[in-house]
Amino acid sequence: MKKRLYSVSILTALLSLFMLSCNLDGAGIFLSQSQAQVVPADDEIDTVDRIINVDTGIMYIQQGLIIKLRDISDDESSWEEVTALNGTVNSAVHAGSSYYIALNDYNENDTTIYELTTALSTTTEIVDGVTPSVVSDIDLGSLFEDGTHAFALYLDGTDVKLTALDGPVTGTIISGADMTPSTDSFSLYEGTTSHLFVTVSDASGDRSSYYGTYDGTTLSSFNLLDPDTITGIESYLVGGTIFGTDFFLYTKEGDVLRTAVSGFSPTTSTFTSVLADDLSLDLDDTRSSGIPTVQVTGSDTDIYALIAGNSSLYMINLTDAAAGTVTPTEPTADAGNYYYNFSSSQVLDFYDTSGVADWSFFVSTSGSSVLEVTLEDAPSEKL
Amino acid sequence: MKRSVYHISILLVCLMLSAGSLYAQSESDAEVTESQGFIYRYDTGDTMFTFDAGPYLPLFVLLPEGDTFYNAITDNTYLGGNASMGFEAFLNRRVSLGFELGYTFSYAKDTTLYTAVPFLGNLSYYALQGDIDIPLTIGVGVIYNSYGEQSFLSPFFLKPEIGVIWNFNDNWGLGVDTSYWFVPEIYTGDNSNKTALYNAVSAKLTLQYRQ
Asked: What is the predicted ipTM?
């Protein structure tokens, strides 16, 4: 009897020790299993380059050289291709109430941008000479938008030009042999003005950012953001966001610079780095319309920017950054939270459905097509 | 991880020792007797070793704090496998008590590996015995779960089981059994939303040796 009690005591003690040594801090093993999804091989992933628009339950996306749409309010629906287009899709955006679709005429230097003011459908036809076109037969560098206005940056002879497509209004950014438009350009809309940060490459491949504005009628002249005179900019800008009264602009080197929107001037404004301790983000991969960024509200009620890095997602506290420096963090891929299902993928695009800093947005990634985020503490769901 | 392996090793050694002290082993006379129309193959003190292996299928989780209570996971996981070995001793002619140690694995659809090491005490009732045994078993124990980099020890785990064994000679039997796995993963406080009640099923080919 004594021997049995002794054995049972040892067993109980060892079991207790073992339990204490295990991870009891919330692994969520079975919850994680219940959310596991097939990870297709790289060559099987239909990655979505751009979430073009979501309108009355229909999502429009660009996948490579084609446009697809789907009724995302219907779980049983599938992606369908818009097939009756006069050429392959170079890129497509939605701004204001129009779709702007850039079609290659099977020649990369021969692109025409068509404007469609009605909703796209799988049978939408674009017919050359019939469908209204904004600019024709251009060498397109970038087609980008800020939600309100859309812009085409292209090469015309030796001129790098930009057209505000809803005007259309065209201006010349810079002229010169071997100057080429770059894909890093982006626009930030505030009040009634689009703030354009346009990137141009020179003969040696070095890129520079130019700044101009568009108010729906007038396109301003463009001025260089000169790395020689602006502290903080070493080469060019790759993206940004507006919070409060400030721009937060991302440099190619991964710094985040704060500067006031009101009265902004590339020659006289003051730029302040908001990242503490000379930290930097890994950002320099080219994306459409700048580095994808979406604003959310943290559990501390501060506003955060989620910024898509090359291999990581960064969080920056904009509320704190408006007045000082901050340390960027990477969200934890916790079982059951929004990030878990795409934490191992690169974010390719965000589409903010609400336009306010909540947790309601779509995200396309390198590891899946499109996921819908609804809450910070709820798993994102693949469409 | 090293610490966990160390603990498991010590645990197993102690369990083997204590099992030995709980039951006096007896030589089998393999005598089949009949009483009141029931055939008895086993007698008090008889002991058996069991070896099993077969497929393992996660079925569903219940999430008491989740957005949806019931989550089928057959689409989230692949068919896995499990193997175990056990020892049992008869308390009387129809009921045995024993223990079982196993290893279970399955891959989630994102290729994350789930493994589990269950250790449980089994109480078996032999509804039929003779050339064919039908043991009904209820197992209660602990199970150490690992999923990717995460781990969790479920201090309570339930596994009811039914088997059919053909005793092809005095010492050896061969058969099949199927088990239902109920594994709670319970958290409190901030992590209570991760509380899950896991349900799975396994089927095994069983080889049995009677001493």
From this structure: 0.80
Q: Name the band, by pLDDT with cuts 50, 70 and 90, for residue B12.
A: very low
Residue range A346-382, pLDDT digits in tens: 888 899 887 788 889 999 888 777 889 998 888 888 8
Q: Please report the sign of the dihedral spanned by the C-alpha atoms of residue A217, residue A223, residue A227, residue A230.
A: negative
Question: Which residues, in sequence order, are bridge partners of residue B84?
Answer: B52, B102
Burial (CB count within 10 angstroms: exposed 0-12, middle 13-18, buried 19+), residue B51 = middle
Find, among B174, B165, B1, B173, the residue nearest to A23 by Cα: B1
SS3 of A180, please?
strand
pLDDT digits (tens, 9 = 90+) for A133-155: 888 888 888 899 988 999 999 99
In DSSP terms, A343 is beta-bridged to none
Test B194 with A335 for CB contact under 8 angstroms.
yes
Q: Between chains, do A11 and B18 touch, taking CB under 8 Å as contact?
A: yes
Which residues fall within 8 angstroms of residue B190, CB to CB, at 6 or more apart?
A26
Bridge partners (DSSP) of residue B40 are B33
Neighbours of B200 (CB within 10 A): 25
CB B113 within 8 A of CB B80: no
Q: Which residues contact A32 (CB under 8 A, 6 or more apart)?
A: A335, A336, A340, B108, B112, B147, B148, B150
Question: What does the DSSP 8-state code read for residue A289?
Answer: T
From the list A8, A19, A26, the residue facing B194 with the nearest CB is A26
The distance of A12 to chain B (nearest Cα, Å) reads: 10
CB A133 within 8 A of CB A105: no
Beta bridge partners of A71: A58
- Give the integer Cα–Cα distance in Å for A365 and A60: 16
Predicted confidence (pLDDT) at residue B87 exceeds the cutoff of 90? yes
CATH architecture of B26-210: Beta Barrel (2.40)
Chain A residues near any Cβ of chain B (below 8 Å): 3-4, 7-8, 10-11, 14-15, 17-19, 21-39, 335-336, 377-378
Helix A2-21 vs helix B2-22: angle between axes, to the nearest 10 degrees? 160
Q: For residue B149, give the amino acid letter.
A: E
E strand or H helix that includes residue A14: helix A2-21
The string of pLDDT tens digits covering residues B106-142 is 998 878 899 999 999 999 999 998 889 999 999 999 9
The residue of chain A nearest to residue B20, with distances taken between CA atoms, is A4
- pLDDT of B26: 39
Question: Which of chain B's residues have a Cβ under 8 Å away from the Cβ of A32?
Answer: 108, 112, 147-148, 150
Q: In chain B, what are the domain boundaries?
A: 26-210
**Band (A1; pLDDT cuts 50, 70, 90):** low
Task: Tell me the residue type at B31.
Answer: E
pLDDT score at A106:
58
C-alpha B206/C-alpha B137 separation (Å) is 14
